[in-house]
Amino acid sequence: MLIVMRHRPTTERVDPPPETHSFRITDLDEARAFCAEFYYEVHLDLLDQARPLAFEADLARLGAITVGDIRFGADVAIGAEVIDAYHVNLPIAGAIGSEHRGAVTIASPRRAAVFRPGTGASTRRWAADCRSLNIRLDRAVLEAELATLLGRPVRGPIRFGASFDTTRGAGLTWARMVNLLRSEIANPHSALLQPLVAERYTQGLLGGLLFAVDHQYADALTAHAPPARPRTVRRAIQVMEADPTHRFTTAELARIAGVSARALQEGFRRHVGLAPMAYLQQVRMGYARDELRHPMPGRDTVAAIANAWGFGHLGRFAAAYRERYGESPSATLRGR
Q1: Are 234 and 216 part of one and the same domain?
Q2: Number of folded domains in the chain?
């Protein structure tokens, strides 16, 4: 029998918060330094000496993913001898012709270019009026996400196709997700820049790209995933109930249960009727209700208890609580 100790959460390790930056640069060396810090060591040269550099970049870095809205304001040539991550160029205006792995790919607002780690890439002409989202995705993290979705190890690099359509299907969805982050860079209070939300949003971007671009594992990803057997669902439930304050993700629970994330989700849908994260929320709400019914005088408030169990938005907590228990949290706290 699993014995569950109900306890108030303790302080956990806090991941570094997402970073946002804005740059306005007119010096070539400074622009090269920017690229080296946030992307790769590059060769960067002006193609028209009569038109000075007017580099602009609005950038967000969420853990394994860096998204930069970049304009050079002058015609430049740019190239990297080695790219150590997966990379996507998604122009907002203009087009970029790049050479990578012996082939030339034209990226435009309708089609994104994809680069694989281990080799270089070059753009002979990035026009002054071109503006592009440059997305860098950590190799190890993206490959780990693929392994989690497949439920088995991934050997070697992901052999992405050179480009993908951003006007329809999964490619359009992914482009919209990236553009949402771009639009939120200047919003200091954006939910996407809150660490807990950013973690899940990043995971969505990683998984979304794996469904948007053709690669050697694409058929396996889209194949039907058999539901997790009840014992694997029970294993995930036991882990959540034993440590309800832990910041679980579906991917982490799937690894613990020994199945793919899709299989775990399907298993929960079939055998529990809730998604794993929805089940975890109900577990936490049950513990919050216990504390509301037996508060410590002079210390416990609805807000303090809700926050302690991971409910950061008091209004949403109260609405969900009332829907589940038929009374408000404050009514439970007052003993009514």
Answers
A1: no
A2: 3
